[in-house]
Amino acid sequence: MALRIYNTLSGEKEVFEPRGETVLMYVCGMTPKFHPHVGHARLFVAVDALRRYLAYRGYRLRHVQNFTDIDDKIIARANVEGVSAAEVSERYSRSYFEAMDTLGVQRADVYPTVTQFMPQIIAFVQGLLEKGYAYVVDGDVYFSVERFPEYGQLSGRTEEGGLAGARKELEPGKRDPRDFALWKRAKAGEPAWDSPWGEGRPGWHIECSTMVRETLGDQIDVHGGAQDLIFPHHENEIAQSEAFTGKRPFVTYWPHVGLVTTAGEKMSHSLNNFTTVRDMLQAHPAMALRLYLLSTHYRSPIAFSEEGLRASARGLQRLRSALVDYHPERPAPRPEYAQPYMARFEEAMDDDFNTAGAIGHLFDLAREINRQRSEGASSEAGTGGQVTQVALANVLGLQLEPAEAVERHEEVEPFIELLVQTRQRLREAKQWKLADEVRAGLARLGVALEDRPEGTTWKWTEPRP
User: Fold this and answer.
1) Looking at domain 20-261, which CATH architecture does it have?
2) DSSP 116
3) Consecutive H or E run containing 423
4) pLDDT score, position 162
5) What residues does 137 pair with on adjacent strands?
6) Separation CA 313–CA 294 (nearest Å)
7) pLDDT in tens, 86-108
8) In whole angstroms, how far apart are CA 257 and each of 6, 152, 351, 453?
9) 20 to 30 A from 343, CA-CA: which of 44, 135, 199, 206?
């Protein structure tokens, strides 16, 4: 089956055919104005899974992800904290790396910043002016949407039907409410850079167009980002870039990641309805959060819930239950029973990176490994299935080290023994209902009891939901 990817530009799943030997991918990164929240993690974990699967399929990839390190909200945060905008950007960029490293998000090849490319941004704006796609108004420079007939090709928003949600900048001198800022004249007390139109700083959209061109070229294969960037940000990127270079398409595939919501609203710093990744990782394992984020297809929204995250933590233990006696240093061929699960995993990922479906097949494989063990399969067959499970989990960036399972045995076994003894006393007292509740509770934690004439024994198994 060919790898297919949903393209927002066409509204369809398309066979993935990169332009050259190396896949060129750009992802809109953070504006580092505070610690990254779960919504940010959802985007970057999804992109990481996409990237990992491309590598698994044998593609070479150059991945660029920017930081918007100068912005109104960064300036506002700097004023609150009593430091410079540069210090805010640097502080929360570090926080991004700390959080994403913990979640197993691989580093991009390049992390360009707006301030790093200021001369190139100014040259890009000047080029659009010279080509007749922009105009100057009292130190501001605007892109003329009327001059670009293809405007709306990504979002479907047109002059007649689609301005809802646009940033309608109504400064005097604008020729069309759809026109957007390429350069904004300086405000008192804010960081500014010299330009042919006076001191100022770039508009939001021109920054990414420039950084794409400077790091990857005029045309790229994949441009990722969250769904709320489709309009106006990515629509405006297309207009600027194709107007400047004269080359189409600017981007071949546009995958967009669904938003994380709380109480029906997008999780965001602006709405102050966010939960930071660092706070989440104080209470939950990093791999449980990653599993939670990948258990929904990347294009679908996630209504964030603590219960969902706890369920993912239990699911993580279900996957790890198949690795209780795993010895990675022992080489073993992939057993025949693991082949169908691997094929189904790949089929799911080939279908627009369906991580939710792929994870389902991982659970099925874990269950089969446990079944093989209980039926006395050879250690080679067991290890071979485990090797397959670990390899496929790694494609999703899920670390299933057996160390936790070993620690779980060592630390929890005395408590399990105590519960088993307590249940036995309940049975002797004919407290059958309470005894059954203890048994069911242990089963949910991944402990199976077996009552024998000589007494009750127990073993680790996958926990039942």
Assistant:
1) 3-Layer(aba) Sandwich (3.40)
2) G
3) helix 403-428
4) 45
5) 140
6) 13
7) 999 999 999 999 999 999 999 99
8) 11, 20, 15, 56
9) 44
